[in-house]
Design brief:
30 strands; 539 residues; four-stranded antiparallel β-sheet; Methylamine Dehydrogenase, Chain H
């Protein structure tokens, strides 16, 4: 769609085009003479000869116009005649459109449309009124046409923009496809090499096993041959003497354990099945765009999205809520819980808070009204460092910084237990599948682990997260780790570092971060008394 500005503007006016056909004179005595003028008062078309005679008789009392002017709009010069008297109609009733000439007397007549009788208006006045009325309507129509033309251009411009955007998205999909194909190729090559290595090792084991097996077979055959010869050639007295010796030799050579390596299925074959599953076409987060910053008037330690319109904040003076209305306007409500809350988490739209009460930490589950709550568990804590919590489908877990251990609450049994992670955790986050992420700021490591048999089983470890602070994940499985160097680390579900995203609007020290879907990231400023919102870009 090109050159929209060259499209014509809306215009309902048309140029006056004079008809090329000539008109005859209205006088019957003329031999089809061509009319050159028209008398408005006589309503006659006249040739040159009759125009001269008409000028002598009527002079300037009658209005004459060139025949070309008459031809442009002959309808407006036509005279309406009274049906009763034959005279020219001079007036029209405003109510019933009844006409009247000079000889008409309508004073005694009743008007069909008005009980007050006729209200007559001269044709000239009525003409001006009608012309003015329709001039106004035509002006409005012209404006509307211009508006429609502008809208038409806008629609095509929008289509152009969308076509460009679609082309970008197609390029992005193709790029992601190529990246994932390359990633699958690399992973498959690694796995193939591992399987080849396993195959070579297995072949060596089988060859060694075969060598040992053949040696045992040869010894057993020799033993059998000796026993047969001994039975054939030895005297019975010798047999009695050598009976135990020959028995032991034969039994020892017969006791051959069969443990073939080929009967064991390699774990690599099982793990390779994961690579054959259809991969998701997911765009990796690439940058952050600052949206807004909202003051909380006290230390803001934690953020947690609830649906698409609410963001709960754990603050030094309670829990507060950012509401996003239909107009996308974001408003901060008054605090809904008057407690020192160092961690606020949301799971299945249920809000959980960790309250710091001096020497005790208490975890509450908020009811339908967030201001009402139910205590789940508590634990003693003598230090000053803030304690964080995470909520999953089966458990809620909190950090006891005194001992660097985790207090685990089971939703099913309503019981708590103590777990000892391999690192001293600073923040926690449950993934949708129930795995737990533990983040250490001392070792700069992130560990994904599984809770099994009241123990933590490590799945993978991601190292090198300099100055790491807090952790969360999006609906695509990507893991976000905040830091004290204005950088967000993006980590894949498999524990690989994907990208480091920097933004000068990130705070120097982040509280517990939260992401809405895959598009909006909330970052508390921890002591900065505010929360910052960022758009997550995936191009």
């Amino acid at each position: 769609m090109e050159k929209f500005d060259e499209l014509p503007k809306a215009d309902i006016k048309t140029e006056d085009v004079v008809p090329s056909t000539s008109l005859p004179c209205d006088c019957h005595e003329c031999d089809e003479q061509v009319a050159v003028c028209y008398c408005v008062d006589c309503a006659l078309k006249m040739c040159d000869a009759h125009q001269q005679a008409h000028s002598l008789l009527a002079g300037e009392k009658h209005q004459t116009i060139p025949i070309s002017t008459y031809q442009l709009h002959p309808g407006i010069y036509k005279k309406a005649l009274c049906e009763q008297h034959g005279g020219e109609v001079l007036e029209v009733c405003d109510n019933c459109s009844c006409t009247a000439c000079l000889r008409c007397d309508r004073s005694e007549e009743s008007c069909e449309e008005s009980p007050c009788g006729h209200t007559f208006t001269s044709l000239n006045t009525l003409k001006k009124k009608i012309n003015a009325e329709f001039d106004n309507l035509l002006e409005q129509a012209s404006e509307k046409l211009t508006e429609l033309c502008i809208l038409d251009k806008q629609i095509w411009n929008v289509l152009d923009e969308e076509e460009v955007e679609c082309a970008k998205r197609i390029q992005m999909i193709e790029r992601i496809r190529d990246e994932q194909i390359e990633m699958i190729r690399e992973e498959s090559e690694k796995l193939k090499e591992q399987i080849y290595e396993y195959q070579r090792g297995l072949t060596d084991q089988v060859e060694l096993y075969n060598t040992e097996l053949m040696a045992k077979k040869e010894r057993l055959e020799e033993s059998c041959s000796e026993v047969r010869k001994w039975l054939r050639e030895s005297h019975v007295t010798e047999k009695v003497e050598q009976r135990q010796q020959m028995t032991d030799e034969l039994v020892n050579n017969t006791d051959v354990k069969v443990d073939c390596p080929l009967t064991r299925t390699p774990a690599l074959i099982h793990s390779s099945n994961q690579l054959l599953q259809q991969p998701k076409l997911v765009a990796t987060p690439t940058s952050l765009t600052f949206i807004s910053e909202h003051s909380t008037n006290s230390g803001c330690y934690s953020a947690a999205y609830a649906g698409n319109d609410k963001l709960f904040l754990g603050c030094g003076d309670g829990v507060k809520c950012l509401n996003k209305g239909a107009s996308e306007e974001i408003k901060l409500t008054a605090r809904v819980i008057n407690l020192l809350v160092t961690s606020v988490r949301v799971y299945n739209n249920i809000v959980y808070i960790l309250h710091d009460n001096g020497n005790e930490r208490t975890v509450y589950q908020c009811l339908s009204e967030v201001s009402k709550r139910e205590k789940l568990f508590s634990f003693n804590y003598l230090g000053k460092a803030a304690s964080e919590a995470a909520v999953g489908k089966d458990y809620i877990v909190a950090i006891n910084p005194d001992e660097g251990k985790l207090v685990l609450y089971n939703f099913t049994t309503k019981l708590t237990m103590i777990l000892t992670p391999s690192i001293r955790p600073f923040d926690l986050h449950f993934l949708p599948d129930g795995d737990l992420l533990t983040l250490s700021v001392s070792s700069n490591n992130l560990i994904r682990c599984r809770i099994e048999d009241d123990q933590l089983t490590t799945i993978w470890t991601c190292e090198g997260l300099d100055e790491a602070c807090t952790v969360t994940s999006d609906i695509d499985g990507f893991i976000y780790v905040s830091s004290r160097i204005k950088t967000i680390y993006i980590i894949s579900p498999e524990g690989d570092m994907m990208k480091e995203i920097s933004n000068n609007n990130l705070p120097d020290f982040c509280g517990q971060i939260s992401i809405r879907g895959r598009k909006e990231l909330a970052v508390p400023t921890w002591g900065g008394k505010s929360v910052c919102l960022f758009k997550v870009n995936h191009y």
